[in-house]
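Tokens for DnaJ homolog subfamily C member 17-like. Go.
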Amino acid sequence: MASGGVGAAVEEEIDHYEVLRLPSGEEGARLTLDQIDKAYKGQSRVRHPDKRPDDPSATADFQRLRASYDVLRDEAARRSFDARLRARRDRALRDSARDTKRRKLAADLDERERAAAARDGAPDPAELAELREKKVAAQLQRELEEFLARKANKSTPASASTSGQEKREGSEEKEKMLKVSWERSLGDYTAAKLKEIFERFGEVEDIVIRSKKSKSKASAIVVMSSKDAVEAATHSMSGSLSNPLLVLPLVTTAGTSDSFSAQTAETSEPKVSNIVGAGFNEYEAMILKKLQEASKRKKGIQ
């Protein structure tokens, strides 16, 4: 029953079971003719060229299906094919075992060579490779650190300049501020009243009345628009005669004299210069007292 096509199919070393979508190997060898016939009929209905008019390979595929079916239907051809399949599987197993054995032999040889090199004092190739990698990593780390250091050095002068500029600007802003004090027991001043008083010296940008920690004394910070306005305010008597204001610059500059020294020659007290803390509070109390005494004398003259 085997034809020339059958012989050609056998020579192609194709798996006829797989062509018919059947299990191969030992399981395929146990298939009955009825199972093979059923598989062929099912595949021929699906893979017939009439069912695949747009598939250019449909005819060749169907011919291969028919040739494989003929081999499996022919008892002698099938036995020969099964024997060839077994030989092919055995050869693959031997090749796999041989490859495994070769890999093991190669690994054993490498291990013996490393052991011999270690005994002779020669460096291990794996250790040499690891050492080279560490050297490269260390070099990259050094280059990165040098780059960051150069970048930091370049940015330092600009940062210092910016910081210095900010300090100068802050100092200039403080030179536009006045510290104003008065006796609360003689009458209080509101922010609106203080603004009205100091606007005659220049524009008033802001007024901050400090919290009432003391029942007898009160104070405020008056922010003027210019240092000239601060200078003018510290050289003038401000507030009511019954409760005069003590006006001092928040920051004493070379061109700013003490307000009290400019207002009255009745005291020989030194100029205010960087007075802070308790000493400043005592000085304020003394100045207020003298201003009040001067106010009373002025009323007596009038």
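The chain has eleven helices and five strands.
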